[in-house]
Amino acid sequence: MEITRLVLPGPSPTARDAVLLCARLARLYEDGARAVECDAGAVTAPGLGTVEVLARLRLTARGRPLRVTGAGPALRALLDLVGLAGLLAESKEREPPFGVRE
Protein backbone atom coordinates (compact mmCIF):
# COMPACT_ATOMS: atom_id res chain seq x y z
CA MET A 1 0.00 0.00 0.00
CA GLU A 2 1.37 3.41 -0.97
CA ILE A 3 1.61 5.82 1.95
CA THR A 4 1.33 9.60 1.60
CA ARG A 5 3.10 11.91 4.10
CA LEU A 6 1.64 14.92 5.90
CA VAL A 7 4.18 16.90 7.95
CA LEU A 8 3.08 18.47 11.22
CA PRO A 9 4.62 21.87 12.00
CA GLY A 10 6.84 22.28 15.03
CA PRO A 11 7.54 22.92 17.73
CA SER A 12 3.86 22.66 18.73
CA PRO A 13 0.93 22.64 16.28
CA THR A 14 -2.01 24.89 17.19
CA ALA A 15 -5.76 24.94 16.57
CA ARG A 16 -5.11 27.25 13.61
CA ASP A 17 -2.81 24.60 12.13
CA ALA A 18 -5.58 22.01 12.59
CA VAL A 19 -7.86 23.75 10.09
CA LEU A 20 -5.19 23.83 7.39
CA LEU A 21 -3.93 20.29 8.08
CA CYS A 22 -7.45 18.82 8.05
CA ALA A 23 -8.18 20.53 4.72
CA ARG A 24 -4.89 19.18 3.32
CA LEU A 25 -5.67 15.68 4.64
CA ALA A 26 -9.15 15.73 3.09
CA ARG A 27 -7.61 16.74 -0.26
CA LEU A 28 -5.06 13.93 -0.03
CA TYR A 29 -7.82 11.37 0.44
CA GLU A 30 -9.94 12.97 -2.30
CA ASP A 31 -6.94 12.74 -4.65
CA GLY A 32 -6.71 9.00 -4.01
CA ALA A 33 -4.38 8.58 -1.04
CA ARG A 34 -5.03 5.17 0.52
CA ALA A 35 -3.01 5.75 3.72
CA VAL A 36 -1.50 8.88 5.27
CA GLU A 37 1.46 9.14 7.62
CA CYS A 38 1.67 12.26 9.80
CA ASP A 39 5.34 13.05 10.34
CA ALA A 40 5.58 14.52 13.86
CA GLY A 41 9.37 14.77 13.92
CA ALA A 42 9.29 18.57 14.24
CA VAL A 43 6.90 18.48 17.21
CA THR A 44 9.25 19.05 20.13
CA ALA A 45 6.88 20.82 22.56
CA PRO A 46 3.58 18.95 22.31
CA GLY A 47 0.60 20.29 24.20
CA LEU A 48 -3.17 20.38 24.02
CA GLY A 49 -2.98 22.10 20.62
CA THR A 50 -1.10 19.09 19.29
CA VAL A 51 -3.73 16.77 20.75
CA GLU A 52 -6.47 18.83 19.09
CA VAL A 53 -4.69 18.72 15.73
CA LEU A 54 -4.26 14.95 15.86
CA ALA A 55 -7.80 14.31 17.11
CA ARG A 56 -9.25 16.46 14.32
CA LEU A 57 -7.05 14.73 11.75
CA ARG A 58 -8.32 11.38 13.01
CA LEU A 59 -11.93 12.56 12.60
CA THR A 60 -11.15 13.90 9.12
CA ALA A 61 -9.68 10.52 8.12
CA ARG A 62 -13.09 8.91 8.80
CA GLY A 63 -11.69 5.46 9.41
CA ARG A 64 -9.12 5.54 6.60
CA PRO A 65 -5.52 4.64 7.51
CA LEU A 66 -3.81 7.48 9.40
CA ARG A 67 -0.68 6.99 11.51
CA VAL A 68 1.74 9.28 13.34
CA THR A 69 5.47 8.72 12.80
CA GLY A 70 8.51 10.38 14.32
CA ALA A 71 6.78 11.13 17.63
CA GLY A 72 9.15 11.87 20.47
CA PRO A 73 8.73 10.53 24.00
CA ALA A 74 6.70 13.54 25.20
CA LEU A 75 4.21 13.27 22.32
CA ARG A 76 3.93 9.49 22.73
CA ALA A 77 3.20 9.92 26.46
CA LEU A 78 0.64 12.67 25.78
CA LEU A 79 -1.17 10.60 23.14
CA ASP A 80 -1.23 7.64 25.50
CA LEU A 81 -2.67 9.84 28.27
CA VAL A 82 -5.55 11.13 26.11
CA GLY A 83 -6.33 7.78 24.48
CA LEU A 84 -4.89 8.50 21.03
CA ALA A 85 -1.87 6.18 21.25
CA GLY A 86 -3.50 4.05 18.54
CA LEU A 87 -2.45 6.71 16.02
CA LEU A 88 1.24 5.94 16.60
CA ALA A 89 2.85 3.94 13.81
CA GLU A 90 5.44 2.52 16.18
CA SER A 91 4.21 -0.89 17.21
CA LYS A 92 3.49 -1.48 20.84
CA GLU A 93 4.56 -4.71 22.45
CA ARG A 94 2.70 -7.69 20.95
CA GLU A 95 0.90 -5.54 18.32
CA PRO A 96 1.57 -6.07 14.59
CA PRO A 97 3.14 -3.15 12.69
CA PHE A 98 0.92 -0.74 10.74
CA GLY A 99 -0.63 -2.48 7.77
CA VAL A 100 0.20 -6.01 8.95
CA ARG A 101 -2.55 -8.44 9.87
CA GLU A 102 -2.02 -11.50 12.02
Description:
- This protein is of the alpha/beta class and 102 residues long.
- It has helices at residues 15-30, 48-61, 73-81; strands spanning 3-7, 35-39, 66-69.
- Helix 1 runs parallel beside helix 2 (48-61).
- The protein starts with a strand and ends in a 21-residue tail after the last helix.
Helical percent range?
25-40%
Global morphology:
globular
Largest sheet: 3 strands, parallel
Radius of gyration over all CA atoms, rounded:
13 Å
Number of contiguous helices? 3
What's the β-strand tally? 3
Beta-strand proportion: 5-15%
List low-pLDDT spans: 91-102
- Overall residue-averaged pLDDT value: 88
Structural class: alpha/beta
